[in-house]
Amino acid sequence: MVDTQRTLLLGNLAAVEGAIYAGMRFYAGYPITPSTEVAEGCSRELPKIGGRFIQMEDEISSIGAVVGASVSGMKAMTATSGPGFSLMQENIGYAYITETPCVVINVQRGGPSTGLPTKVSQSDTMQARWGPHGDYTAIVVAPSTVGDTVTETIRAFNLSERFRTPVVVLMDEIIGHQRELISLPKPGEHQVINRVKATVPPEEFQPFRLTANGVSPMAAYGEGYRTISTGLTHDPMGFTTNEPKEIKVKLDKLRNKIMDFRSEITKLRVEMMDDAEIAFVSYGSVSRAVLLAVALARSAGVKVGLVQLYTVWPFPDNKLRDYCQKCHKIIVPELNMGQIVHEIRRVMPPDTEIHSLQRYDGEILTPMQILEKLEEVM
Amino acid sequence: MEHKLLDKIEIPHDRFEIRLSGSGGQGMILGSVILAEAIGVDYSKNVVQTQSYGPEARGGASKADVVVSTNEIYYPKAMQLDMLLCMTQESMDRYYADLHKDGVLIVDSGLVKNVPTETYYALPFTKIAREEAGHVMVANVVALGAIAAFTGIVSKEDLIDAVLKRAPRGTEEKNRTAVEIGYAEAMKVKKDPSRRAGD
User: Fold this and answer.
1) How many beta-carbon contacts under 8 Å exist across A and B?
2) B77 contacts in A (CB within 8 Å)?
3) Could you tell me the pLDDT band of residue A1, with boundaries at 50, 70 and 90?
4) Is the peptide bond prior to A314 cis by the omega test (within 30 degrees of 0)?
5) Angle, vertex CA A153, rays to CA A261 and CA A66, nearest 5
6) Do B51 and A177 touch (CB under 8 A)?
7) Which of A48, A116, A117, B126 fits as disulfide partner to B139, beta carbons 3.0 to 4.6 Å?
8) Binary contact (B50, A177; C-beta < 8 A)
9) What percentage of chain A carries pLDDT values higher than 90?
10) Residue A258: pLDDT band with limits 50, 70, 90
11) Other residues' Cβ atoms within 10 Å of the Cβ of residue A47
């Protein structure tokens, strides 16, 4: 591992540093641009610390191996980009219903299909929320700098372990392929959360027991507990059920264990919003262009601010409404044809003017383009 | 059109922005990483390196930006280049417009024939690499040596340290020579303004 001092670190390797810090000891993946350096970093670092790295035959088996490692007690991760993320969806859905903690990093590139392997995009924002079929609630975090990538990957593992659920780290080509001088966190600097383990006598164990906070203590295969993982809808024992009452209990559990604790999950960066009349709302790499645009507009006397979403899903309805309550106009810059902007329309009062600023030609929005949009809506 | 806001805004010049550009395989991205690492040993500076390239392993346009500032770097890509290196005619044509009016332009005079300005530095990096440094592959390192001399953004010693950290075993001397020659040739051009354009 890189020494704990200032180092010029690639975004994708920052994800590796964050994951290892959080306790990740199993990585399975299939290389794909622009995420490959995550796999390369894990293949170098994991063997040194007693971890396991395996290159699988494709993305479907990669996420399968990750789920298998997690139910066997390890903190596990994979990384991919658009085409691979699409292939993983079925088994990510399996992780949702089996309540298996794991982290999936998606370093976004342009799509659909093979699309633009080396170009930036934020067009998987909705896929990260709605990728697998069925009803479930997703947790998705989005860093914007190399330093963020370390802390957000740690947070992704913590949320995953805390809530027994897959967590997606939504990166993009610019963050993944950018090098920045950062200081790596020292041991103890960040909290590391581990899943709650089963402690009851084996005969009393229920792998999906209903608890006050919705999260069931987990037993790893091989620890002496009878535990079941099935993609079929199941009761607290893990047995398949077709009973309407039990089905509803299970689906409510998948939602409520996350939505009842949304304030623990939501994370925002709020800049210059105290007296802002116009707000930008953004996430991921484009937030950095916005930050410069906001600073420049402020120096020209415009009352404008930024709310950056570190947690993209669950969407921070209440906090966003609070921070933007004095803003009559909101601009939403995204590197796609307009995705998160619809959530902002859903959340804000109907008299708020909401403008979508889109770029989807493989390049990042520049601060000048953002300022042009600001001037247009002022 | 009248720009009430845009006309009032001046991008503060608190950043030094460098772009290395050429075609895939010329080592522009690796060159930018080495340069960023060399500059990064100075703890008073922030450095961000980004890149842009095509899906091809060789050929296709390739560029890499290094942004240096003593302040926090919000936007990671270059906006108005303080220095542009062009190793192909295509990159010259494509990126010249991004160069600040006081920016430094450096071209490989063996590969770039049409330069849209009279104020620039020209050295035949690829030819020097092939004939004097021992291998065409170190053309990017020869160019790095010249960048250190022309801009002063990094010392020759820090640059050599950074190059040697990245050089594959057995190529250390070739790479060190490449920096030395690039630096020396650039110093000659710099001291003699009549040699500034062309070679």
Assistant:
1) 81
2) 174, 364, 366
3) very low
4) yes
5) 90
6) yes
7) B126
8) yes
9) 98
10) very high
11) 11
CATH for the stretch A6-183: 3.40.50.970
Q: Is B53 helix (H, G, I), strand (E, B) or coil?
A: strand
One-letter identity of residue A71: V
Q: Which residue of A has its CA nearest to B72?
A: A292
What is the pTM assigned to this prediction? 0.95
Q: According to the model, what pLDDT value does residue B199 have?
A: 45
Interface predicted TM-score (ipTM) of this complex, two decimals: 0.90
Burial class (CB in 10 A: 0-12, 13-18, 19+), A223: middle
Strand order in A304-309's β-sheet?
Answer: A268-271, A304-309, A278-282, A329-334, A353-358
CA distances from B141 to A130, A150, B62, B133 (A): 47, 31, 16, 10
Q: Where are the domains of chain A?
A: 6-183, 267-377
Decide if domain A267-377 falls under CATH 2.60.40.10.
no
Q: Could you tell me the fold of the domain covering B12-193?
A: Pyruvate-ferredoxin Oxidoreductase; domain 3 (3.40.920)
- What residue has token string 């020494």? A3
In the numeric block, the tokens 């450096």 are attached to B106
Query: Which amino acid is located at A319 in the chain?
Result: K
Amino acid at A245: K
Contact at 8 Å (CB) between A235 and A221? no
B4: chain A residues, CB-CB within 8 Å: 375, 378
Q: How many CB atoms lie within 10 A of CB B127?
A: 17
- Nearest CB to B75 within list A8, A292, A300: A292
